[in-house]
Amino acid sequence: MESTLPASGTSKTLHHGLQVLELLVQHPRGLTLTEIADGIGVHRTVAHRLVRTLEAHYLCRRDRFKRISLGTGLVRLAEPVEQDLRTLARPVLEELTDSAQASAHLVVRENAEQVRMLMIVEPRRAAMHVAFRTGQLDPITRGSAGLAILAAGPPVPGERAEVTRARERGFAVSTGEIAPGITGISAVVRTGRDQPETSIGLSLFEAPDPDALGHLVMAAAQRLSALLG
């Protein structure tokens, strides 16, 4: 995990506590206290205090081997996040993944530079499918999900040709930009002002007919937009 300095005017202790949680997300089988200290670049004593505080709030826990992993308290904190969007999106994603026999994803804009994987639904009958980690952050300028969101805005000087192309045809296509060999096809979801910028799409190993898949994705985006309207 790359260690970053807290921004000016923010809490250094809280910053380190959040770094612990982010580190544990990357290691679902847990880490030792020493590994956590090394991972976020603090003394073992500091790591011990951080972990004890997170344990007190059920945000992490230790097993009988003293390995530390994420705690169940995170479920309670995460449950309300974009609940309406996720609730409405799930049946649309399920229909999309059944139609395409590929993993369907819902992505929201996190900030000016990144998008976050909010939900992924995997096909039930496909022999093979793409799997991503829910919550992962990716650059908005790479991958079909971010490109589709950018394409929903007006043209800007120096934008990628893929963004311009996505604006013209209504969906974005990328290959190998988020994971090697994986093609993404995404379309923007028109949402209200209270909703984050959102895209819906497919991730698959092969896309022999991206136009046909693109139209499936656009139809799904329109359905979700109507539900959110």
TrEMBL record:
The keyword Transcription regulation applies. InterPro entries: GAF-like_dom_sf (IPR029016), HTH_MetabolicPath_Reg (IPR050707), Tscrpt_reg_IclR_C (IPR014757), Tscrpt_reg_IclR_N (IPR005471), WH-like_DNA-bd_sf (IPR036388), WH_DNA-bd_sf (IPR036390). Keywords: DNA-binding, Transcription, Transcription regulation. One of its GO terms (biological process) is negative regulation of DNA-templated transcription. Residues 11-72 form the HTH iclR-type domain. It comes from the Bacteria. PANTHER family: HELIX-TURN-HELIX TRANSCRIPTIONAL REGULATOR, ICLR FAMILY (PTHR30136), HTH-TYPE TRANSCRIPTIONAL REPRESSOR ALLR (PTHR30136:SF24). This is DNA-binding transcriptional regulator, IclR family. It comes from Amycolatopsis australiensis.
